[in-house]
Specification:
By secondary structure, this protein is an alpha+beta fold. It has 5 helices and 2 strands; from the N terminus they run ααββααα. It has helices spanning about 1-10, 15-35, 70-75, 75-120, 140-145, and strands at about 40-50, 60-70. Strands 1-2 form a two-stranded antiparallel ribbon. The protein is elongated.
């Protein structure tokens, strides 16, 4: 099972695939958040106010107020309820769930590696191949095909 996972990692986890995944994630995030640009429009209001007059000038000042107003698209029920919940779940809850899953897998792998290390140190180890960790492995076939590898022998 460990050999199958190692093969899977070597085939699927390449730098080129990582770049493709990052590009797909960034493009998806842009497309998902793109409708937010059409949610509101800005209304410019100008007003003259006597209360805004400074102590140093006697002239009335113009005050410009920029106010966001929902567009027809932004005021629709489907956008307010459907899109906002989908957007919130995709950018808040989905990463949280994925973080929990991957952290659980990491903790599981660390614990199994600790158990394997404990079993290897407490077992009667005859030899260890440098590329794969295995106890009590017959090295004759391995050594005839490849270069000679020094064997580690532990005596009780």
């Amino acid at each position: 099972m460990l050999y199958h996972f190692d093969f899977f990692v070597q085939v699927w986890c390449t730098p080129r695939r990582a770049v493709y995944v990052v590009i797909i994630i960034c493009t998806s995030a842009f497309l998902i958040t793109f409708p937010e640009f059409f949610e509101c429009r800005i209304v410019v209001e100008q007003s003259s106010s006597a209360s805004n007059r400074s102590n140093y000038s006697s002239a009335d000042t113009q005050q410009v107020i920029l106010r966001p107003v929902p567009t027809e698209f932004g005021a629709s029920v489907g956008y307010r309820l459907g899109y906002s919940y989908v957007n919130q779940s995709l950018f808040t809850f989905l990463p949280l769930i994925l973080l929990f899953i991957f952290n659980s897998l990491l903790v599981k792998a660390v614990l199994s590696a600790a158990r394997l290390r404990k079993a290897m140190t407490s077992a009667n180890v005859v030899s260890i191949r440098p590329d794969k960790f295995s106890c009590r492995h017959n090295m004759t076939e391995y050594n005839t095909k490849r270069q000679k590898i020094p064997q580690l022998t532990v005596l009780d």
